Amino acid sequence: MARAITPRRKAITTVIAWTIGLLIFFPIFWTVLTSFKTEAEAVATPPRFLMFDWTLENYATVQERSNYFRHFWNSVVISLGSTVIGLIIAIPAAWAMAFVPGKRTKDVLMWMLSTKMLPPVGVLVPLYLLFRDTGLLDTRTGLVIVLTLINLPIIIWMLYTYFREIPGEILEAARMDGATLRSEILYVLTPMAVPGIASTLLLNVILAWNEAFWTLNLTAANAAPLTAFIASYSSPEGLFYAKLSAASTMAIAPILILGWFSQKQLVRGLTFGAVK
Amino acid sequence: MATKASKTAARLMISPAVILLLMWMIVPLAMTVYFSLLRYNLLMPGMESWAGFENYQYFFSDPAFTSALVNTLLLVGGVLFVSVVGGVLIALLLDQDFWGQGIVRLLVLAPFFVMPTVSALVWKNMFMNPVNGIFAWLFKSVGLQPFDFLTAAPLMSIIGIVSWQWLPFASLILLTAMQSLDSEQLEAAEMDGAPPLKRFWFIILPHLSRAITVVILIETIFLLSVFAEILVTTNGGPGTATTNLTFLVYVQSLLQFDVGLGSAGGVVAIILANIVAIFLMRMIGKNLDA
Amino acid sequence: MKTTLRAVMGATALCAISGTAFAQDTVTLTIATVNNGDMIRMQGLSDEFTASHPGIELEWVTLEENVLRQRVTTDVATSGGKHDVQYDVVTVGTYEVPIWGKQGWLVSLNDLPAEYDVDDLLPAIRNGLTVDGELFAAPFYGESSMVMYRTDLIEQAGLEMPDAPTWEFIRQAAEAMTDKEGEVYGICLRGKAGWGENMAFLSAMANSYGARWFDENWQPQFDGEAWKNALTDYLDLMNNFGPPGASSNGFNENLALFQQGKCGMWIDATVAASFVTNGAESKVADQVGFALAPDMGLGKRGNWLWAWSLGIPSGSQKVDAAKEFIAWATSKEYTALIAEKEGWANVPPGTRKSLYENPEYQKVPFAQMTLESIQAADPTNPTVDPVPYTGVQFVAIPEFQGIGTLVGQQFSAALAGQISAEQALQNAQQLTTREMTRAGYID
What we know:
With 276 residues, chain A is an all-alpha fold. Chain A has helices at 7-34, 39-42, 57-65, 68-99, 105-115, 120-134, 140-164, 168-176, 181-210, 214-217, 226-230, 241-261, 263-269. Chain C: Residues 1-23 form the signal peptide.
């Protein structure tokens, strides 16, 4: 922005922007804060802001009850695994669609997206039977397969829109220089596509991390990720807000931190071809 | 630019994705369609029999069906409205120059990372609860009667919760789009004396139209199957005020384990989703075909 | 050279075989349970079990009630006793056991060792878990519902809570205790839609009004006077003396309200007694009294009966180890272990006669009332007029979860003021008739 801005205006904008930012963030802040309270303080009126006895007891209780790290590791494997496999399948497909578009390319793309509209509750029983017979129930492999397929359309589409923005002339120039298909992808496309791939990867890790229907219904003990961990804190056991907050904080924190650190990469590719 | 060889190569490169998705779509779909024609309750084994279209007839005649349809559309529409309008406003704001831009952007982005169950629990118990919630406390501290969100305006409350989760996504995409706007164009307009509102309407908004369609498309895909937020907060009630199609199918297929009926509901939901999809594609097709 | 090689290979093979044989000695049981306080305590004592039972390891899956039920039902029903199951021990309630037992999905527990002392189980609870003489699940804890009230508030109001109040008295007391300015609501009851939420309470309440879900020919009865009176009185109580937002309050929300001193009375599960009298969580721990659930003088009280129990799915490959675990977790020794570690107030209640005969346990303030409440409920004969089903606050047929939730939504809408009581009952009657016709109970 080259426009000159008066300090007064900048100050006003700062106040408004911070107010809105803090308002949007407040529920998360409040959850984290509550996780350090005792159960009685968690429901006290008027709400206690910072003046309370800070305690780590809730975290200890949560860890004692369920092995956080195992769930965490399952979440990591499942979300990363499904995203990486998804990318391996999607990159060639998106590349082909973007650079060698046919008459049907758009239809194929839209059809792919429409498979995402399958309501999971309606197909749980058929899929459960299928998983049981193939021995995939409660395995990370099974979840990786399902989540890959669920997110594949989004991955392809994101990559497609990103690849399309890479000017075709560069490719042609490379071809004139006698580049093979392989070197074309390796040396010309990849460097330009990295930001797009990175942000696709991030977005899909987030989506897979938070997927709560299949991950809950197709696992038992061995492959259960953090969504199952959370599912054991949301009900009758006396007051539970503080414990729930602690468990929630533990479940959200890794992905929140990842998201924050990689925010720049995430945003850069999160354009879906909308920036042009 | 496309030679014959590269066309073949392209086909080869697309085919794994297409075949996988085709299988993913056809196998469960075929099973669902098949089950939907059976009388099949998982809790009563050995009673399976051919039912023809009975399940469909039954599903359509469900008194909750119409309201579920309307609720689904209201929920999708409501969240889209809030997140697009809110997203544009936030994007405009964040596009300005101010202190701490990076941090505010992180704050706005954060709700997108929160699992739906967690956000529903937090909103229901810690915010909207008319006795213990923070909103109730705010109302009371200015001398007002606390507003009873989930009873008096259940669907609106759920729209609010879901919007909170999706607003960051919309804001970010729109912000990125806005930053790509040629600032010279804006400056020229400013020099010509165009008032801010006009600049917004004739320059910024048209520039954002593609980004807005993208937001609408992606959010719709996810919003059609909103479920956890409803289960946690209202269980579809009071009445059927917050029952959407997904929840209706849930009551039938996972509470009663009536696989036949649930599958029929699933097929109907898929068809409806595809109708919505076709509409969207038309829209996108027009807007994205650069 | 060749022989040595062969010998080495033979030894290796032997090792491998004995290795696998050794590995088979350790059995890992996967246990699915609900995240209630008593189960979490059991999970915490895993080491006690594995120490005395070498060779058995425990793997816990603890889930919220609705998720657990959905997971376990899918697993057991798709197995149908023929296929492998994910869980070797499942936590099931009195609703599931009769249905699953009849299907042959659960392993009979009639051959538990003599030390288990099956005759010590409370008859009401045992009956609910027995199908055709076979015990299909061992009760872990049992509960009924009762009135929990604030002794200080009722004194202030100049009233005295009888041990066995009537609904009329409850209304009077609720009115006297309500102080909306001071945020004290005379009565807190469940309102959130769901067969296990508001319908558990309302079905039990309706029983005491002489109402029933179905007549002997499975005809739904929501068009009768009895249901109308029950629902009207419930709405009247809640609208005048209940907390705001009651139509989304379940057990949990009401517990939080009561613990903060915002409810004069609360009629709910007997297990809540140990939470509301626990000083660490409850502000009113020293001012809670207990009474039987109210009645109308028709011979039935508005209390329910439930037992969270442990069962073994027929598809399990580890039945023997699972039986050992169940016999341990529901034994008298387990009770003694908890008493020693956590105090008598925290032992799993409501399953054994011997517990209530124990003088130590009789000192617990809610022990007697819990026992009387459980004894006052009769799942095989739950209503004033005869019915074809078992279950007090539910109807033990597979269709009930869905029907109960649909009807619950209607009653919750009436509580929210969206529709009138008449309209809610009319809708309930229509919905239930529709579902029952489809299921083939009626034409």
